[in-house]
Amino acid sequence: MYHKPVLLKSSVDGLNIHSGGVYVDATHGGGGHSRLILERLSSGRLIAFDQDSDVRRNVIDDKRMVFIGENFRYMKNFLKLYKALPVDGVLADLGVSSWQIDRPERGFSTRHQGPLDMRMDKEGERSAADVINSFDIKKLANVFRLYGEVKGAHKMADEIVFQRKSKRIERTDELLNILQKFAPRGKENKFYAQIFQALRIEVNNEMEVLREFLTQCAEVIKPQGRMVIISYHSLEDRLVKNFIKAGNFHGEQQKDFFGNVLAPFKPVGKLIVPDKEEQEENPRSRSAKLRIAEKTS
Fold first, then answer.
1. Which residue spans of the chain are classified as CATH 1.10.150.170?
2. How many whole angstroms from its chain centre is CA 196?
3. pTM of the prediction?
């Protein structure tokens, strides 16, 4: 299986699908969410996005669905192209797929020896190795600090810059060997995961892309339509939460004369996380957080 979808029923339920509507699966992956959406459509349409060329093998053969092999940051433009505006709902699962994690040549996992790649789009210009070998100490430390939320980021960046003077750092195991002396005892795996997360976010420009995507959701979803987002770390979830709460990424609400919050969305229900059964069945779901919002006007 390419990927076991997380919070499958809860997320698709969150779209509040009506059979003739137009919906977007912004992260097609293995197609799990798309399949369930299609089961609930009759005359409706589904537009699915994914920038990873490996996903093409999973594209569903269904005349009601259009697959677009691009980053969801281009969602609005393609929806215009396919005359699909406005849409009734947008779903995005922001996680790395099991297929990507389990492929050593993709470089996403600390468990496998492979090239320092981490590109979601395999045709992307910049890999994790490029970041590690070209960023100066200050810039590299900022990546670790902001996106990995680790302590001692400057010291780690300094050590990497020193080590790369004698040999370019090309592989995951080479980077782990350099950083092992900085790993807190008993928390090594978490530490390495934070470093790899930071590099992946930088390589794929994930935070900027997410901001663009959320802003576009407010522009493409019709009133009473739904936005459904599954995130996996605090940086993503904070952006999603703030945008739903306030219509901006700082979480500072603005109100009109009558005290009504000026935001394009309102939250639907509470934060949803996988139950114990799903976490045991799919350990990679443990950090997932699902937020559902409805377009207000």
1. 121-204
2. 14
3. 0.93
